[in-house]
What does this fold into?
Amino acid sequence: MNAVENDKNVQPLLEVENLVKTYFRRTLTGSRENVRALDGVSFSIFPGSTLAIVGASGSGKSTLAFCLACLEKPTSGAIRFEEREILQFDEKELRGVRRKIQLIFQDPANSFNPRWQVLEILTEPLALQGNLSREEIRLRAHALLEQVGLAAQMDGKLPLELSGGQRQRLAIARALIIEPKMLILDEALSALDCSVQAQIANLLVELQRSRGLTCLFITHDMAMAAHLADEIAVMSKGRIVEQGHPDKILKQPQAGVTRELLAAVPRLDSAPAQEPES
Amino acid sequence: MRGRRAISNWVLLLLALHAIVILAGFFAPYDPAEQDRKSPYLPPMQIHFVDAQRHFHARPFVYPLRLREGAFDQYEENTARHLPLRFFVQGARYQLLGLVPIRMHLFGAENERVYLLGSDSYGRDQLSRFLYGGQVSLFAGLLGAGMTLLLGSSVGAIAGYYGGWRDDLLMRLAELFLALPWLYLLFALRAFLPLAVNPLQAFFLIIAVLGAVGWARPARLVRGVVMSAKERDFVRAARGFGATGGYLLRRHILPQTLSVLFTQVAILVPQFVLAEMTLSFLGLGVPDPVPSWGNLLSSLQQYSVLVSYWWMYLPALIMVPFFLGYLGLGSRLQEQGEPYKIGK
Amino acid sequence: MRYFLRRLVHAVFLLVGVSVLAFVFTVLAPGNYFDEMRLNPQIAPETIDALRTQYEVNRPLPIRYAHWVGSVLRGDMGFSFAYNSPVAPLLLVRARNTLLLTVTAMLLSWGLALPVGIWSAVHQGRMSDRLLSWGTAALMVIPDLALALGFLILAVKSGWFPTGGMVSLHFEDLSFLGRVRDLLLHMALPTAALVLSVLPLLVRHVRAAVSEVLDAPFLLAAEGHGIPPRTLLYRYALPAAANPLISLFGFSIGTLLSGSLLVEVVMSWPGLGPFLLEAILARDLYVVIGGVLLSTFFLVGGNFLADLLLYWADPRIRTETSS
It folds into this structure.
């Protein structure tokens, strides 16, 4: 974990202020209901650090991830990236920002076009940028494959030929190939087997250290969050209910939700898990 | 994969059948408009290998037909005259593929006309009319299906990708078109267009009308595929790298619709061929003398023809292999679904 | 109740929409309709001019549409030039005949398709299922036109069935039973042609819907509980298949209506089909629109019934609307 000096001169890379996102849902019979996915979320992330957002399903975590990655427009609120208010941007400027914040998805099976080969998938972001030669693109692709621990010969394979862990490595490689400033991981480890989770988590730590990446790590797993993050924010029903250093959150949880999430962590010691104080 | 081999078998069958129709000039012994007023309603001539004297001939032959004693429309074989079939003969001039003028036909006989499927009231060879008629009917079906799919997938892509009011408007419109029984809609559209048109105009008119009638169902299907593809993570990821809407549609979303479109082709083409046949049969489609499978059957609307000249019905049966090909292909394509789906 | 109202509104909306479409066609059709009518010797020039004023060719579209809808709702569907009489009574008689044919064919084809399709789904993969599959395929590849013509040839050659019409000339003289027999004889072949044209498609779809349900996990779980197969089929599987089957029902109404058009013309059954055809050839404008509207009315009505059936059959829809 990288602890960033709370240097007065360092500005947050990302600042979120009072983000609200509501959308309409259509039921089978056609009636509409209003869903408030984000209900006034605020936080900041400093460059080079990792913030973990922990919450149960339905707490609005994924909506937050999509809004931050500029894939969806929030209903109201402000997002400042590199000190610029990005919600005012037009589509063209937004595209530029999107390249700097990369998202890694939960379901490795769905993250790739099933008909494309690994090399195509990996190089798509560079091809879209359009300013490198084919040779340069290939070199970068192979370099990244190596960095994430995938063999170079895999570049001709289809996604269905890879294991879950290999797919997430590919997803990380693809996200990093355009050298973003920030990485958002939306439950990226949840779909993997436990042992594989640990491997990928360590890979992430390593990459973050070597590249100075800023990470936003979204999960429901408090233990994983504590292991990876510099700071934890607990989210419930579209709001942040508690925020702080991992040690503090673990030892002195304030909100009921936090305690529930802690209790949900499976423990291997002989003593039974502590009941949350009601 | 076994599935894929089965598909290619059907495709090969269809290609072969369509090739015969495209090269109708070669496979048909005569020009379809060529009349022989002295031989109206001749029954089909049978191909023999063994003659009346029980001699075997390696080369197949037919007997010309002559009127039976005392009858005016009953024919019998004239076993005295032996008419061998020759292959790769020179016959009437035609244009292969509309380009190359050529005179060679697959088979024919010297001096006399051979009617393998009989003749109609003007003495025109039904086999030749069937083959040329296939060009009109099959291609009306194919082009009509192409137009429908083009229209339908454009509408479906816009509705599915943009959503919102565009989606609402377009899907309501589609519902309206689906609320009409399609043949009634087809007739109504045809009704309001001029009746007396020349064959070429009729051909394009039919294609346009078919295209306008059938777009709603493919549009809904394509919309469904586009909507679900839009939500898939790899599309979101591509947006994350800064892809534009056009790029997403072109490279990720629309390719997902291909399997649906192929299946639709296999279903729509026979339906549209049938529609063209129905229109032409009833006099609302391609008019004489240009043959189409529909107007080939229209003489059957006369009671006398129905009763006495059974071979005029044969074209209805010879079309069956074509429909079989499309049906087989369609079933196989539906079964195949998406071969690249990553299993959970 | 709310569901019923909503579907009703939807059906009405469809009818209105179709009427607008029909109206727009007549107005925007290329090849001035009235000019073509001039070519028709049956229609006097004075009639055409009177029509032009009556149909307010120079008034704005929405007004013309409103007047037209008003008269349709009052039962006046326009005037037929060919028959020199109001359209509505002519159409209604023909519509009754078409309904007779279509409804009978619907009952017969579903009556056959359901058991055959279900049986086929239950015995999936066995030789009998495969034979059936080939049988339906063989039937499907025969064009409807060929089927109808084939039946006509059968009637002509065998003499067992009348070759056209709905009733014989001496229908009035027959006893009640005689009349029934006469009608049935006339109906037999057209109905058979219609049923055969639609049956293979229905059987295939029924089989597909039922076999999809049979593969569902919940059914496997029920089987694991030791529920006997017959109960499984009737109390578990079929109700679950009701939803797609009822949608198929709605779809089949459209197919049957279109099919009936062709069968009626070929086999001379005095329904909407031949009437519509004559009208098109005679450029009898209002008959054509009226015929199309009426057939749409039947289709929309049939689908509305299917929606109601769905409400009754699928508990999910009931709970959604009550919540």
The first strand of chain C starts at residue 79 and ends at 80. Chain C is about 80% helix and 0% strand. The mean pLDDT of chain C is 82. The domain at 91-316 of chain C is CATH 1.10.3720.10 (MetI-like fold).
